[in-house]
Amino acid sequence: MQWYFSNDIPIYTQLIEQIKVGIVTGVFPRGERLPSVRDLATEAGVNPNTMQRAMMELERDGLVYSQRTSGRFVTEDETMIQQAKRSLAERHIKTFLAAMGRLGFQREEMIALLRQEPGEENKHVGTDL
Length: 129
Known about the structure:
Layout: H1 11-25, H2 37-44, H3 48-61, E1 64-67, E2 71-74, H4 78-102, H5 107-115
Antiparallel strand pairs: 1-2
Helix pairs in contact: 1-3, 1-4, 2-3
């Protein structure tokens, strides 16, 4: 799994989101055992305590559960995974809408842009409109 971090959001928050993305996209399949906190921390290049904090939050959310001597596992609850997927999508949509609003786009203009076919925005280049 590729890990990406920005400086404007706490690392543990970014870890939570990236692991959630891994769960909803199947990188971490439902019911499967997750790598150890230490292994995940090494892979991501973060402090194990930071990864532990992220994993505890994911447990509180119900996406991950612990088995005493076996480690952590991804939930098998498909409804929970779909809820996480929808929550991630809603957050991305809010970010998109806010950014487009700062650019001066009205909702109708945003919808029109989203409905365009790929490449359609360039079909009038070089022509008089």
